[in-house]
């Protein structure tokens, strides 16, 4: 026998097309155990990702709230430096220098999800700009420190937003797998197991009825054989009695 898909809504009514045998019953029982274990593991992974996702959202919110004040301080420091030392933008752009800060990347593993993270590191390059010699040196140094703080927060925000995107995609994929197992795979396996059990029960009932009929036929055949044997024995006895009576009459006359 071959299992045919039942009409149903969505994928809940579908069953795998397999013959209803003991081997298939055992195989689908193992599949059901594996599907439930996988569902539990993915559910725990989704919960862990949700916790980390919410934490990243809070960090992004806090970082953005802090960056507003930091950006205002940095631009105010730039205005103060230009007020004290004059316009310094063209001199900074015209000067040749090596970046004092660089950004590196590394990968963190969060519940099996690889999340990129940005980190800043110093290049140990000394600043050789001749700015603020005529005046405003202190304001320029304060402006440099404020912009360094602002840069650190921008790098942190970029790292958090990149992690946010990666975590969001991983969470969507994990939730889709959990929903697929919960709504499609496990109900399909359970429906197939139910069908195989019903078919096997029906086969057992048919076998029992067939064996019962065979047994009853054997009993009837045995009864007929016993009756025929008893009849033959009775006929033999009757024939022997008749022969004995005939022999006795022959001797008498």
Describe this structure in words.
The chain has 253 residues and is mainly α. Helices cover 74% and strands 8% of the residues. It has three helices and two strands, in the order ααββα. A two-stranded antiparallel ribbon has the order 1-2. The longest helix is centred in the C-terminal third of the chain and has 116 residues, at 137-252. It is rod-shaped. 9% of the residues are buried.
Question: What's the short version?
Answer:
This protein has 3 helices and 2 strands, in the order H-H-E-E-H. By secondary structure, it is mostly helical.
Write the layout of secondary structure elements.
Blueprint: H1 22-85, H2 89-94, E1 101-110, E2 113-122, H3 137-252
Antiparallel strand pairs: 1-2
Helix pairs in contact: 1-3
Entry keywords:
253 residues; disordered N terminus; rod-shaped; mainly alpha; 3 helices; two-stranded antiparallel sheet; 2 strands; 74% helix
Stretches where pLDDT falls below 50 for ≥5 residues?
A: 1-12
- The sequence of SSEs as H and E is HHEEH
Number of beta strands? 2
Q: Tell me the β content.
A: 5-15%
